[in-house]
Amino acid sequence: KQWYQRRVRGRGSRHASKLNSLVNRLTKKPTMTVLNKTALDWGKYKSEHNIEDDVKNESKSEGYLEKQDFVNRSNVRQFELEREIRQQQQRRRQMMNSKHF
Hints:
Layout: H1 2-27, H2 34-48, H3 52-60, H4 64-100
């Protein structure tokens, strides 16, 4: 009989400790992470300086990477045009030189 009572008490205390642990986790105040703090600070800064609309409008515009892609495509196209002009000039010179001989 004593063995059974000790075993039941042991199970109960184990279940009670698990239950207490669960209650403590649920009622525990959440900790502030760096990311949460940064998001709160940024939101506060935007509202204090009345820049929320400006930030929203800027975020909708093209981003840095899109602008860089455009610049790179423009540079490639400009190089191709200049190369074509150089090749045409070179062909003209070759034709002029071949006529003189």
